[in-house]
Specification:
Elements: E1 5-15, E2 23-33, E3 37-41, H1 48-55, E4 63-68, E5 71-72, H2 77-82, E6 84-87, H3 99-109, H4 114-127, H5 143-155, E7 161-165, H6 173-188, E8 192-196, H7 200-203, E9 209-214, E10 217-222, H8 224-228, E11 234-241, E12 254-259, E13 262-268, H9 272-285, E14 288-295, H10 298-306, H11 335-339
Parallel strand pairs: 3-8, 3-9, 6-7, 7-8
Antiparallel strand pairs: 1-2, 1-4, 4-5, 9-10, 11-13, 11-14, 12-13
Helix pairs in contact: 3-4, 3-5
C-alpha cells in the first residue's frame, strides 16, 4: 500500500454458493487515497454491494487481498472496521431516537469527545437542512430525512475510510446538492471516500476517480476527464419532445437513447451551431419543448461501456448477491455494529 492510500484491493474474487453460483466479484483491483472520492458505478448485480460488504468484513472473499489503513481486512476484519465508517444501502433503524440523538450517540460510540460530537452534529444538521426535524422522533420523519440522518451518523466521527452506499436514495433534489457538498467535504478533511452510486450525473461533480463495474469486474477506471477523453470531440443533444412528435434527426446526428418523450443523440462539436439552429426551429414549430447541448458526460461513457440496457437511474433495491448462510451478512446490523 503506497503512502496516502487508505484502501487497496487486489485480485478480489467472490462466488456465491448455491444453485445460482453467481460470480459477484472477479479479480477486482481498486485503490482509495486519503482526500479522494472514488466513485463505484455499476448496474444492479454488477457486484458493488458484495465489494462493499467484503471491505467492511461482512462477507469473506474467496481470494484476493483487502488492506484498509494498513490492516489486512480479510484476516482481521474487526480491526479494519474500526478504521472505517459506512452508510449502508438500508438505513439503520433509529426507532425511539431523534436524528440529533442518533448522530450524537454514534459519535460517542466511535470515540468522539462529547463537546466535539455535539458541535459536529450541529454542523451536519445545519449543513443538510435538517434543523426542523433534528428533535423529531424517528417514527415521524420521512425517508429522505432518515437517509440524511444516516449520512450524518456516518460523518460525525468519520473513519480513515468512509463508505457510502447509495447515499442520495430518497433525498429530495435540493438536499441532494447539500449532501454532495458534505461528501466532498469529508475528502477535503482527509478521509478516503468510497462512493457507491447510480446517480452519475450528480456524482460527476464530486468524484476524483471512477471505477465502472460490470459482471463483477472493473471494466474502466480513471479520472472523470480521463474517462470522457475519447468522447471529447462529441456533444450530446437532448430533446424533450411534445406528445406525438418524433425527432427526425438532421444529418450528422447519431440517434441515442429514448426514454418516454426524452431523446438523446450525439453530434460532432464542429456541427454544434447547425444543430442548435435546427433544434430552435423544432421548438418554434412546436415539435420540441426543450433542448440541451452538452459535452459528453460520465453517463455517456457508462452507457457506451455497458450498453443501453443498463440505466444509471435504476435504484438498487437490495444486495448484489445473496449472503452465504451463517455468514455475518445474513444477520441484521445494529446501530452500534455499524458505527463501531
Amino acid at each position: 500500500m503506497t503512502a496516502g492510500t487508505v484502501l487497496t484491493i487486489r485480485e478480489l474474487r467472490k462466488r456465491y454458493r448455491g444453485a445460482s453460483g453467481v460470480q459477484a466479484n472477479d479479480g477486482i483491483d481498486l485503490d482509495v487515497a486519503a482526500g479522494q472520492v472514488v466513485g463505484l458505478l455499476g448496474h444492479n448485480g454488477a457486484g458493488k454491494s458484495t465489494l462493499v460488504n467484503q471491505v467492511v468484513g461482512l462477507v469473506r472473499p474467496d481470494s484476493g487481498t483487502i488492506t484498509l489503513d494498513g490492516i489486512d481486512a480479510v484476516a482481521q476484519p474487526h480491526l479494519a472496521r474500526r478504521r472505517a465508517s459506512i452508510q449502508a444501502q438500508s438505513n439503520v433503524p433509529i426507532t425511539g431516537l431523534t436524528p440529533r440523538t442518533a448522530v450524537q450517540l454514534v459519535g460517542r460510540i466511535r470515540g468522539g469527545r462529547r463537546p466535539d460530537v455535539v458541535r459536529r452534529t450541529a454542523e451536519l444538521l445545519d449543513a443538510l437542512d435538517l434543523g426542523p426535524w433534528a428533535d423529531t422522533p424517528a417514527e415521524k420523519i420521512s425517508g429522505g430525512v432518515a437517509r440524511l440522518t444516516a449520512f450524518a451518523m456516518t460523518a460525525v466521527v468519520p473513519g480513515t475510510l468512509v463508505v457510502l452506499d447509495e447515499p442520495t436514495n430518497d433525498v429530495d433534489p435540493v438536499r441532494r446538492r447539500l449532501l454532495w457538498d458534505q461528501i466532498r467535504g469529508l475528502a477535503d478533511r482527509g478521509a478516503g471516500v468510497l462512493l457507491v452510486t447510480h446517480n452519475v450525473r450528480e456524482a460527476e461533480r464530486v468524484v476524483d476517480h471512477l471505477a465502472i463495474l460490470d459482471r463483477g469486474t472493473v471494466i474502466a477506471a480513471d479520472t472523470p476527464a480521463g474517462l470522457t477523453a475519447p468522447l471529447r470531440g462529441e456533444l450530446t443533444l437532448e430533446l424533450d419532445l411534445t406528445p406525438g412528435s418524433s425527432p427526425q434527426w438532421p444529418a450528422g446526428v447519431t440517434p441515442g437513447r429514448r426514454t418516454g418523450l426524452r431523446v438523446q443523440g450525439t453530434v460532432a462539436a464542429t456541427q454544434a451551431a447547425d444543430v442548435v439552429r435546427w433544434a430552435q426551429d423544432r421548438v418554434e414549430e412546436g415539435a420540441v419543448e426543450r433542448y440541451a447541448l452538452a459535452p459528453a458526460s460520465l453517463e455517456d461513457v457508462y452507457v457506451q461501456l455497458v450498453g443501453p440496457g443498463h440505466d444509471t437511474d435504476d435504484v438498487p433495491t437490495g444486495p448484489d448477491g445473496p449472503p452465504e448462510p451463517g455468514t455475518p451478512a445474513a444477520r441484521p446490523s445494529t446501530t452500534a455494529e455499524v458505527a463501531a
